[in-house]
Amino acid sequence: MIERYYNIINELDGSVFLFGARQTGKSTFLEQQFKDAVFFDLLDSETKRRLSRNPELLFSMLQDKEEGSIVVIDEIPEVPELLNEVHRLIQKKHLRFVLCGSSARKLKRKGYNTLGGRAYPCYFYPFVSAELPDFDLDRALLYGMLPPHYLSKRPKNLLAAYIDVYLREEIKEEALVRNIDAFQRFLEVAAITDSEIVNYTNIASDCGVSAKAVKEYFNILEDTLLGYLIPAYTKVVKRKVSQAPKFYYFDVGVYNYLMHRTTLAPGSAEYGHCFEHFVVQELVAYVGYTHNENKLSYWHTYSGKEIDVVIGDALIGIEIKSTEEIQKRHLSNFKDFKDEYPQSRCIAVSRDKFNRNIEGVECIYILDFLKMLWEGKFF
Description:
Distance between the termini: 29 Å
Low-confidence stretches: none
Number of helices: 15
Order of helices and strands: EHEHHEHEHEHHHHHHEEHHEEEHEEEH
Largest sheet: 6 strands, mixed
Strand order of the largest sheet: 8-9-10-11-13-12
Number of strands: 13
Structural class: alpha/beta
């Protein structure tokens, strides 16, 4: 059994919404963390049927529970009418709830009770490197870190099913978009622009829809936790910088599948792209699990100088290079960055196993970097 990094019990003061993309392992995690809790699985047909027909049944079943008791409701968006009863039980019986789902979009879109701040949102992610004793970097870069895919002997088949059923059919069933063909095209164009600065007009032209529709498509991917936008760092002193965000799919394996990529050769541009995506994916999970106030951004000047990740208020600048031998030329962007933000800690992450300092830049081997990250040694 793989122990997940996130320890939600330690921070469970009241009630929480636990959101995460499908197959990140939320249900298994909740069963491990809350062995003594009352558990409702709304993917169970009978449970869903009875509670859908009579939401008040939840209150009847739980009203005699001891104050402070924990109740887990898995896949709460399946029967969102239960939230009124959850609200009553929190207020009148002082029970604590863990409400799990793939996203809050369905709840927000139809105006369901989101408990008025009585349950705070937290997020669950695919595997992270710190959870895997025999972590295989190249496997992660190609197949991603969703538990079924990373652990499977046939991850290609599982990825195909995941894309077809989840990214397409579920979004279609929820009627999130009117033109599903354009949205399917958008998924592939979004993959092409993964880790690139978003240009809504160009993407709209490629998809045959308006720029407004493309912005809504990106919102759908964010709300369903299938991707995230990393904003530009815009606090500048001297240089003009980009303002548009960068987009990343939530898992590098999903990105590879949409790119029809079945192999990755070290040293290739594709390998470097996936290497960057994976490091960003780990950083996003770390910030999410630790509720760190230092948010992620990137820095890009109009003259083309770029730092892949900026932590907080230029606390740290990180360049991500897949090379096996870091040289001074790989660090040239740091010159302008350090001139702009001299207080910043500068780090280059690569596959170079010889850690060293080059002109004020800490060059750190990827596996050492990941270990240090999850031990909280950076921020």
